[in-house]
Amino acid sequence: MKFRLTILLFLFTQTLQAQDSLLARRMVDTLTSPYFWGRGYTNDGMGKAARFIAAQFKSFGLQPLTDKNYIQGFSFDANTFPGKMEVAVNGVALIPGRDFIVGPESIGIKGEFKLVQKDSASFINAEAHILVTLENKLTWSVEQKATDYTAIQLDKKAIKQLPSAISINIENVLVKNFKADNICAMIKGTERPDSLILLTGHYDHLGGMGSNTYFPGANDNASGISMLLTLAKYYAAHPQRYTIVFICFAGEEAGLLGSKYFTENPLVPLDHIRFLVNMDMVGTGEEGITAVNATIYPKEFALMKQVNDRGHYLVKIASRGKAANSDHYWFTEKNVPAFFIYTMGGLRAYHNIFDISKTLPLNEYNHLFKLLVGFNAALMK
Hints:
This protein is α+β, with helices and mostly antiparallel strands. The protein has helices spanning about 1-30, 45-60, 220-235, 255-265, 300-310, 330-335, 365-380, and strands at about 65, 70-80, 85-90, 90-95, 100, 110-115, 115, 120-125, 130-135, 150-155, 165-170, 175-185, 190-200, 205-210, 215, 240-250, 275-280, 290, 315-320, 340-345. Strand 8 and strand 9 (about 130-135) form a beta hairpin.
């Protein structure tokens, strides 16, 4: 009988993991779809994603972190490109995102202009305030301001001759006080509800560049939000001794703005946080994971490695020091113990149109899920 129960438990666990893997894939597929338009600043992409995540928390049975809803609102300025995004160099039309990107700080401009070469990779029209550069790789970002020039980055492979003339029709809109929301939820602890474990990740990405091109952000960071949501579903069914808090931040791509706002306007006492794990770009893992802040919290890093070694989950957990490279940072600055973890290996797409769900393997998802559950359990002992 004992053997039979062990087999049934094993099969149940495997089925649960398979279901969670399917949920994670479905979440990545959904969050990277055109409907969410890169979870950014045009087509209500970020707003749609915020409402979707809040609905998921509600469906799992999580409580809002505030009395009324799951939302912590804030605002910031954002330079956006909602309309025309047309560039032709030497008479050849180029494809947005693939052949060129516009500098995120740029103003819109329309017309045909001659270019003068300044160096091996830079070409300008001084009167029109246009800068064109040749790049080996195109990487986009978000800016909170618009300057007085237009920058165009060209993929070297997209042109056959040095650029001598350019036709541009680009529209920008500087949005003042763009409204964004952190989405916050919790599962009350059964024994020590005032002690907190925080699981965090940012759900925003770069949004759209023009009316026809968007940046899906599969690894960055639909992967982290998918992991967070599957953990939320798991912990809703398995309440822990400590309260588990889930925060999906907005504004990370614009400068870690959502997490900064939260730490300046905390919805929980920061000194009650036992530990925070921030998940950002966790869609691979064949080469293991890296833990940022590992050198600051060596005891917790050793604990994570022990859990990993016991379970034979990931091939490596690399140690890294303090870095202001994701949403853990502002918590670290407030003396909240925290790790930022990201997976290593495989995927190379980053801040471009090729970070898509189809090529995101999620190949170590189950092992990372088990590691995080085991690590959190160890923290609560």
